Amino acid sequence: MSLVSPVLLLSLAVPALALGGYLWLQRRPPRYAVIFPNLTVLQSVARHERAWRRHLVAALLVAAIALLCVGVARPQMALEVPDERATVVLALDVSGSMRAADVKPTRLDAARTAIEGFLERLPKEVRVGLILFSAEPYVAAPPTHGRSLVLEGLKYALPQFGTAIGDSVARAAELAEAAVRDGSQPVENGGKATLAAELTGPLEPLSTVVFLSDGFQTRGVLTPEEGAQQAHDLGIQVHTIALGTDEGVIEVERYGQRRVIPVPPDRPSLAAIAEITGGKAYEVRDAERLVEVYESLGSSVGRVKEDREVTAAFVGGGAIILAVAGLLAGLWAPRLP
Q1: Edge-to-edge strands of the sheet including 75-82?
Q2: CA-to-CA dists, residue 165 to 83, 95, 96, 256, 280, angstroms
Q3: What DSSP string runs through 96-148?
Q4: What strands lie across the sheet with 207-213, from one edge to the other?
Q5: 128 near 147, Cβ under 8 Å?
Q6: Does residue 182 sit in helix, strand or coil?
Q7: CA nearest 205: which of 316, 315, 113, 302?
Q8: Model's pTM, two decimal places?
Q9: Which residues have a Cβ under 8 Å from the Cβ of 133 and sit 6 or more positions away?
Q10: Domains, the chain, ranges and CATH?
């Protein structure tokens, strides 16, 4: 935490002096003695006051004044806030293996549901794009602040043939990098750039790829590692999700015969992509965990650390504590009948 006006912290001398004065008054011996002949009657009518109540009210008053004094110094904290330049590119595998039902109802249906939840959780300031890939990648929705275009693109997520992991990682990174370069332009919704954007400039890597696949590469020019290296060279971080279990299978009918084909995910390749690009690798074996992963990513990607003034929090906290102290004092202080 930092302070805009640190010299005003000298005002903390006020609650410190108040605390010192209170402690001195508590230790000071009584100045007058009262003579009362009948101690039994005196004990029966005297009010038994709990000392801790008096001390609690005093402590609350001192704490409230201290918080208000810190608020006067205008404290700032580094908070993660959405950035209008930030972009998330979602890359979704739509190969035939996504028809496997080991993740209920199917891998593809579970992925659609999780992505829809991700879009709801992602801050509105962050642009999002969608790439669908099987034998080759194609852009289903360019990066945009509008979520409807991405949801419309998800409708075209239908199982196809082949899996080009390397090419798709590279294409998603290119799309994300282009969004970084475009970040120097005015944002689509006419919003004002954040202070972080003004200070860091347009070259800060604020684009991220969330890459979901459930199988091994069968098509494409680039290997997964080569695609990851291209993403790394562009400064794009790729988070990978390996979806499915080792028991996942699909049924394929060829030449009049029905075959059962195992479709386990290629976890090592996806983990390598994340490692090369500095992202995180997730292994997901059920729909509930998939939703959790996308929710976690939706709460973390597209954010930058920015110093924000939190004076209101200190002043509000001090006011609340002061009100509580006054209420307790009114309840516990002696009153005339």
Answers
A1: 2-3, 75-82, 303-309
A2: 29, 11, 14, 30, 17
A3: GGGG-SSSSS-HHHHHHHHHHHHHHHS-TTSEEEEEEESSSEEEEEEEES-SH
A4: 137-144, 127-133, 87-93, 207-213, 237-243, 281-284
A5: yes
A6: helix
A7: 302
A8: 0.67
A9: 91, 92, 93, 94, 95, 163, 164, 165, 167, 168, 171
A10: 2-78+309-332 (no CATH), 84-301 (3.40.50.410)
Span 105-143, pLDDT tens digits = 999 999 999 999 999 888 888 899 999 999 999 999 999
In order, the DSSP letters of 268-307 are HHHHHHHHHHT--EEEE-SHHHHHHHHHHHHTTTTEEEEE
How does pLDDT run across 25-57, given as a tens digit for each residue? 777 666 655 555 555 655 555 555 566 777 788
Phi, psi of 139 (to 5 degrees): -80, 115
For residue range 231-287, what is the model confidence (pLDDT) as tens digits? Answer: 999 999 999 999 999 999 999 887 778 889 999 999 999 999 999 999 999 999 999
